[in-house]
Specification:
The chain is mostly helical and 74 residues long. The protein has two helices and no strands.
């Protein structure tokens, strides 16, 4: 497995932020929606975006195992 470039890491970090935001927006929709169908859709969206977040995080963790050790800055 090849290590991830810094540009790819930036993209993945943005993706994690976006997935988290989408979960929060769907949760907000649940609290404000009066239509049960809208709540159900928002619940489905939360599950979907939480799964996406977990998949991205898992990929990052797998690549962290093969990443070269970075010298710590002092």
């Amino acid at each position: 497995m090849q290590s991830i470039t810094s540009k790819e890491l930036d993209y993945l970090a943005d993706s994690l932020t976006n997935e988290d935001l989408l979960v929060k927006q769907a949760a907000n929709a649940i609290t404000h929606a009066q239509n049960p169908a809208i709540r159900q859709i928002a619940e489905h969206l939360i599950q979907s975006h939480q799964q996406h977040y977990a998949q991205i995080l898992s990929a990052l963790q797998q690549h962290a195992q093969v990443a070269p050790n970075q010298p710590q800055q002092q």
